[in-house]
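seq:
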Amino acid sequence: MANRIVQQAMSRQRGAGLIEVLVTVLILATSLLAMGALQNRSLQFNHSAYLRSQANLLAYDILDRVRINSDEFEAYSHDLGDDAPGGGDVTNADISDWLNAVAGTLPGGEGGIDCEDATWVCTVTIRWIDDDRLAAEIDEDAAQETTTFTYSTRVRAK
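struct:
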């Protein structure tokens, strides 16, 4: 008797229906798309952190150059967005090398230095375009999303 009940139950259950399969595929596809979106955002945040780290290293680089050549402290001031200075002295060579490094490392990167003679404090400002794809498609009329990194430090005691 029990065997007959099991056989009747099995005969009614013939397999998964089409609707059940479609619901399962829909859930799986939605989950995979969500995981792909999370991976994409993770890569974007990782790249942003990398660019900030590079900006930090570039700020330390120019500040070390200022400390080494502190006799010419006030000559290191350079406005953000200005062209690299010409000339053969050490200060202009340092600024020019540094600006080339900023432009080569960060997408649309530009840098500026403000050294205050009275306080011996230098403020380094580095600005770049947020996304490499935007740097390749620069449109003069379009607003650009930029990131600005600012670092201030005392170069030497008063």
